[in-house]
Amino acid sequence: MNKQTKAIGPFKQLLSMSNLPLKGALQDEQLEVLEEVGILVKDGVIVEILPFTTLQDKCKNEAIPLEYLEGNYTAMPGMVDVHTHICWGGARARDYAMRVAGKPYLEIAKAGGGIWDSVQKTRAASEAILTEKVVQRANKLLQNGTTTIEVKTGYGLTVADELKMLHSIHQANSKVSADLVPTCLPAHIVPKDFEGDGMAYVEHLLHDFFPKVKAKKLSNRADIFVEESAFNHTQARIYLTGVQAMGFDITIHADQFTAGSSLLGVEFKAVSVDHLEASTAKEVAALAQSDVIPVALPGASLGLGCAFTPARKLLDAGTSLAIATDWNPGSAPMGDLITQAAILGAFEKLSMAETLAGVTFRAAKALNLTNRGRIAAGQLADIVAFPTADYREILYYQGQLRPSFVWKEGIKC
């Protein structure tokens, strides 16, 4: 990137997301909404926000380039999608058609669908093809305002194929403006062709996969799907203990269909627990007493036709809340963060402040990133501008209002 000192503006409104707490419910009155301002950027980092007339004078006096915007725009921080599976081969439209026709998951799986279908197609895809697919999907997210994207493995399920996925994610990261954050999910399901049970597979991963990832510095994050159809609590404890001892940050696919696995996240001090559609009062209370970030995945609820994450209860209990797409070929094929966040907000009665926090600084914390998610001095100049003079219209139009401009570290994408 050609980084330099520059100014951007004017913005009719600017949502800084500054001075908002990481945890708990938020009211719209708490939002800092600045009017008629511009942003000074140096080396990809925000220097200050100034009244636009003041910024214009500064640019003139100090010969600073000004990126002048004609029209009315509202700026907010670049969005952060903390849970995606955008590295995959093939598609599963047949699964979706069967599911909306009322076919249960096991019947779909027996007919050759489900996660295993994506595993076979991803294994068959070359590293170059997977890289190209990740680039395409990441650029779509970026175009819609997402500047940081978590990307999971989990459709390889052999050491070689999981490493292939990680290499593809790294190659894609060098080809896109958005930041891609790789997460290891080799414990997605027990592969059908593995000679052994779930515990043997977990031990295999700890012995043969994660040391290679660590040695090659391909990722510092590990995930596991804890569910009756995937890994039980005993297997998960062995897995989480092992990866944590190696220095990996932990996140968990938790409480999607049955409650209780989010408690493992609390026990192991996970960075986040994601899904939580089946969480009960017990899990909500435990999460509220921890620093774990709950992550709602409304795309999965829409794709599966099931309940949403109890976002309102979580926030009222005092937790944080991030919102992510879960973009994957099976249960969450939409891949549209602002649309999903708006829909979740409507169903769960979230304030606009809560919804927007969930896709900005609270989401960044779910990736252990503190240098983005707010428009403030010292933060990365990851900025999105919507064509409106009223920030409320960003969610009001439920995804139909698209960004006019996206800047990654001050560079227009």
Helix content: 25-40%
CATH architecture of the largest domain: Alpha-Beta Barrel
The count of strands amounts to 16
C-alpha end-to-end distance: 10 Å
Total tally of structural domains: 2
Relative strand content = 15-25%
Residue runs with pLDDT of under 50 for 5 or more positions: none
How is the biggest beta sheet arranged? 8 strands, mixed
Shape: globular
Q: At the third CATH level, what is the topology name of the largest domain?
A: TIM Barrel
**Main CATH class of the largest domain:** Alpha Beta
- Classified in CATH, the superfamily of the largest domain is Metal-dependent hydrolases
Instruction: Kindly provide the radius of gyration, computed on alpha-carbon positions and rounded to a whole number of angstroms.
Output: 21 Å
User: What structural class do helix, strand and pairing data support?
Assistant: alpha/beta
Number of helices: 16
Mean pLDDT across every amino acid position: 96
3D structure, described in words:
This protein is of the alpha/beta class. It folds into two domains: 6-77 and 373-412, Roll (Urease, subunit C, domain 1); 79-365, TIM Barrel, CATH 3.20.20.140. It has helices at residues 52-62, 93-100, 105-110, 115-124, 127-143, 159-173, 198-216, 233-245, 262-267, 281-288, 298-304, 311-317, 337-348, 352-358, 361-365, 393-396; strands at 6-15, 33-42, 45-51, 66-68, 74-77, 79-81, 146-152, 179-187, 221-225, 249-254, 272-275, 293-296, 322-323, 383-386, 405-408, 411-412. Strands 1, 2, 3, 4, 5, 14, 15 and 16 form an eight-stranded mixed beta sheet that branches. An eight-stranded parallel beta sheet has the order 6-7-8-9-10-11-12-13. Strand 15 (405-408) and strand 16 form a beta hairpin. Helix 10 (281-288) crosses helix 12 (311-317). The mean pLDDT is 96.
